[in-house]
Design brief:
heterodimer, A: 329 residues, mainly alpha, MetI-like fold, 18 helices, B: 564 residues, alpha/beta, D-Maltodextrin-Binding Protein, domain 2, 2 domains, 5-stranded mixed β-sheet, 4-stranded mixed β-sheet, 17 strands, 12% strand
């Protein structure tokens, strides 16, 4: 593909190194680059169109966050209220409760969940039997395809008040067995374990790919030099995973405020909103369920902007550490 | 709920999909919240004098003498299906017009092509009604787009508990036909079957001084529901018929029958059922008056705090099924049927043929019973607030011409033919021989009938509800007797049957999600996760954030329109 070889060629034939920090790409005029990359650009059109139709067009509806939106008056005739919805939002204690709760649940989930797929990938990568490996990979990936309703039902059937465990305990003389499904104080660990059970196998695939990209000769050389298992892990495997880990971490931060809507909504009743309310369920309960669209949109917009700031901040930090982050600087 | 009596396997709990504890509350909130101040005329409600001018006349019909007469408004009960079916409409009501109708359906949607049921009913109606039943569980989701996209059919069912997001006070004037010129006063006499529908149900369909809604499934004794128990299991345990005189009796009974080791708990979450003995009105904001005659919301009363404390005690003692504690309302009926809990709260319509069949298939010998109403303290007369005359209404499109409206009203009159009529049998069971066969127990659907007959036309217009369970006279006897004995405790709460438009700024205070949503503060207190002090703080917060303003607004409504 000429489009791909051109930059390299330009670098080779360009000005001698050292005279300019970033020589070749800057020199090609904008039009020429457009012509050069037209095939690549063409390939992104369907994705951009999709993003435009389903991502950006609905954003126009955000104007209702600044209106007192009425179903019959529509966007055109609903009265403007300026920042009143946001004012109400930011003085609403239940909103702040949902906000801090979101951050708390997210942090706990991040700390507990994030290492799980990495550990799983390293473990699986060290298995020699290919057959056993693909079997285990199949088993741990499967729960990803279950819906949250199903995952929570399975947890309920196992650990719930009338589930397998409690029924067994009750039949063996425990009068009031512990019911983790309705306990608000342990809820953050419950949702983390649900997430690990459901998603660790799926998230592992990316790390497995990254592990496969590490040249076996590195391990061989290290082994010849007398590096043991732990040293090889520390000096070859983990550095090899660093880039992808940081990228995923940043992407995850982008979901920090929107994560787990279904998971929380389904269990909202069981443990109560005190432990389970997150911004998305707040926006749903108080915006959509009660037909208060403007208020829900205001909460949604607040959430979007905060998420964007979080992503940009994380990206900045990644760049400071010399990593690629979302894009190469 | 009441639709159960016409054979629809559903109840208020299952189709609302809300927590049982908030059933009555959740159901009524949107009704009141629905009308914005921008509603036609800007009026808050309809005054008694205005009502008197437009209320349709009431001409009761007595086609078949019931085995259990209506006492104090209880629904009449019929043990058998009448053998001689009477024609109540002469000739064909339609002029050959073609119309579309959308109704909710809690069953599989029948195929319209070659449907003998649709064809035979349409033939009798003399019009081509294109029925478009839509999944009842998601019906509330299709309503807003129908309204905002101007895609309303000619005739549509809109339950009053789903009008919340529709801003209904404005919607009726903008999109729906005003039926006042056709039905007010004696004009309704042209449609005798419509005139036989209870006035309270017509009144609940009046918005801003105009008749819009055609009431469906009307009853006089409509309440949130009853406290039910497993009569067969109590017999097996040697307890027999329980005699509950106080709330402590109920606790003692629960303690006696609770056996978690055998996977059998005494109680479901019976919160809504506790509102009757503790005398708390259940429709939000459920105003009552205090000693001084001032309006007090139900959640500001001491009674509701007592009810919470009592149920919290029950949870703490391990008498409530853990799944009920986890607010798993979807499997609530299943738990009751299979005997995993013996005392539950459910809607009035939960007690019928379908329940008997499901219960028996889960556990042999299944019998449902209900506790007669009582007071928590055992003193005084028990009482229970009546819900509006009905919560089911059909509406005609505003774009219809006068002659089209008249044609559809004649069709509505046909559809509202009472129990025991030829028309009622046709609407509910389809064509004889093809869709049903007449047995000694009454009509039984054939294989074809089971596939094709669906509750569709009945959602557009139907007669007052009756109790009849073909093949299960024992169920009819039990329910009819229970209603006869308990209907006298029904009372009309403040603002009964009034559609009140609330300014948008008060909508949040009226919806009062902290008291009505899933996982609300009451449920938290009952489960021991919040304290009564937390609850009182929530009440104070509500008062300061619109609650007191709402009270003032309702004071104004009271002064202007009266309170019932």
């Amino acid at each position: 593909m000429p489009a791909l070889t051109t930059p390299a060629a330009a670098r080779q034939t360009g000005t001698p190194p050292g005279t300019q920090p970033r020589p070749a790409p800057r020199k090609i005029p904008w039009r020429a680059r457009l012509r050069r990359d037209r095939v690549l650009i063409l390939m992104t059109v369907p994705a951009l169109a999709l993003l435009g139709v389903f991502g950006y067009t609905p954003m126009l509806g955000l104007v209702m966050a600044f209106q007192d939106y009425d179903l019959y008056d529509g966007f055109a005739h609903s009265p403007w209220v300026g920042l009143a919805n946001f004012q109400q939002l930011l003085t609403d204690p239940s909103f702040w409760h949902a906000f801090w709760n979101t951050l708390e649940l997210f942090s706990v989930q991040l700390v507990l969940f994030f290492p799980a797929p990495i550990a799983l990938a390293i473990l699986l990568d060290s298995l020699l039997s290919r057959r056993l490996r693909s079997f285990i990979q199949g088993v741990v990936t499967l729960p990803h395809f279950f819906s949250w309703v199903m995952v929570i039902t399975i947890f309920q059937q196992m650990l719930g008040g009338t589930g397998l465990l409690d029924t067994f305990l009750r039949q063996h003389g425990v009068t009031n067995p512990f019911n983790i499904m309705v306990d608000p104080s342990t809820f953050k660990f419950l949702v983390s374990s649900q997430l690990i059970w459901k998603e660790a196998g799926w998230s592992m695939i990316v790390y497995l790919a990254a592990l496969a990209a590490i040249s076996p000769s590195l391990y061989e050389a290290a082994a010849v030099d007398g590096a043991g298992w732990a040293r090889r892990l520390r000096h070859i495997t983990l550095p090899g995973l660093k880039g992808i880990t940081i990228l995923l971490l940043i992407l995850n931060l982008g979901y920090a405020l929107t994560f787990g809507f279904e998971q929380m909504l389904i269990q909202r009743g069981a443990v109560g909103p005190g432990a389970s309310e997150v911004i998305t369920t707040f926006s749903y309960e108080f915006g959509i369920v009660q037909g208060n669209f403007s208020y829900g949109a205001a909460a949604g917009l607040f959430l979007g902007v905060t998420s964007l700031i979080l992503i940009l901040a994380a990206n900045k930090v990644a760049h400071l550490f010399g990593e690629d982050g979302l894009y190469r600087r | 709920m009441s639709a159960d009596r016409t054979g629809i396997p559903l109840n208020r709990r299952s189709f609302l999909g809300v927590a049982a504890a908030a059933v009555g509350a959740a159901a009524a909130a949107p009704l009141l919240a629905s009308c914005g101040e921008s509603g036609a005329g800007g009026a808050g409600s309809t005054s008694q004098s205005e009502l008197a001018k437009i209320m349709p006349s009431y001409i009761p019909s007595n086609l078949v003498k019931p085995d259990f007469a209506s006492i104090d408004g209880s629904a009449p009960g019929y043990l058998d299906y009448p053998a001689n079916l009477v024609h109540t409409v002469s000739g064909v009501p339609g002029d050959g017009g073609s119309y579309t109708a959308i109704t909710p359906l809690w069953a599989s949607i029948p195929s319209p092509s070659g449907n003998t049921y649709y064809n035979s009913v349409n033939k009798a109606l003399g019009a081509t009604m294109t029925m478009q039943p839509s999944n009842g569980n998601t019906y509330n989701n299709i309503l807003p787009p129908l309204f905002s996209g101007s895609k309303l059919p000619d005739w549509i069912q809109i339950p009053s508990f789903w009008t919340g997001p529709l801003n209904f006070g404005q919607a009726v004037g903008a999109k729906l036909a005003d039926l006042t010129p056709y039905l007010a006063g004696d004009k309704i006499k042209q449609y005798p079957n419509l005139a036989a529908i209870f006035p309270a149900a017509w009144q609940a369909g009046i918005w801003n001084n105009k008749i819009y809604g055609i009431p469906v499934f009307a009853t006089q004794f409509t309440v949130a529901g009853f406290l039910y128990y497993r009569a067969d299991v109590l017999d097996t345990l040697g307890i027999g018929t329980p005699h509950i005189k106080t709330i402590n009796d109920l606790y003692d009974l629960g303690k006696e029958i609770n056996d978690p080791k055998a996977k059998r708990w005494a109680f479901d979450d019976i919160w809504t059922g506790l509102l009757q003995p503790f005398d708390v009105p259940s429709n939000p904001p459920a105003w009552v008056t205090n000693d001084k005659g001032d309006l007090v919301a139900s959640w500001e009363t001491d009674n509701i705090v007592e009810a919470m404390a009592w149920e919290a005690k029950l949870v703490k003692a391990g008498l409530m099924n853990p799944d009920a504690i986890a607010l798993d309302t979807n499997s609530g009926k299943q738990r009751f049927w299979s005997g995993q809990e013996l005392i539950t709260f459910d809607g009035q319509g939960a007690w019928n043929t379908g329940d008997q069949q499901s219960g028996t298939s889960a556990q042999k010998g299944y019998v449902r019973g209900a506790f007669p109403m009582f007071t928590a303290s055992g003193t005084g007369t028990p009482r229970i607030p009546l819900a509006n005359g009905t919560e089911w209404f059909s509406f005609l499109n505003k774009d219809l011409s006068k002659s089209q409206v008249e044609e559809l009203l004649r069709i509505a009159n046909y559809l509202a033919a009472p129990f025991g009529s030829y028309e009622y049998t046709l609407i509910n069971f389809g064509a004889p021989a093809t869709d049903y066969t007449m047995t000694s127990n009454g009509p039984v659907l054939t294989a074809t009938g089971n596939k094709q007959v669906a509750t569709t036309y009945s959602f557009l217009a139907s007669p007052n509800e009756v109790i009849n369970n073909p093949g299960y006279p024992a169920v009819t006897r039990a329910t009819a007797l229970y209603e006869q004995q308990n209907a006298k405790y029904g009372y009309k709460p403040l603002f009964y049957d009034m559609n009140i438009a609330v300014p948008a700024s008060l909508n949040n205070a009226l919806a009062a999600s902290q008291f009505t949503s899933t996982g609300n503060i009451m449920q938290e207190v009952v489960r021991g996760r919040s304290t009564v002090a937390d609850y009182k703080a929530a009440v104070t917060h509500w008062q300061k954030n619109g609650g007191n303003a709402l009270r003032k607004y309702f004071d104004g409504i009271r002064a202007k329109y009266g309170d019932a």
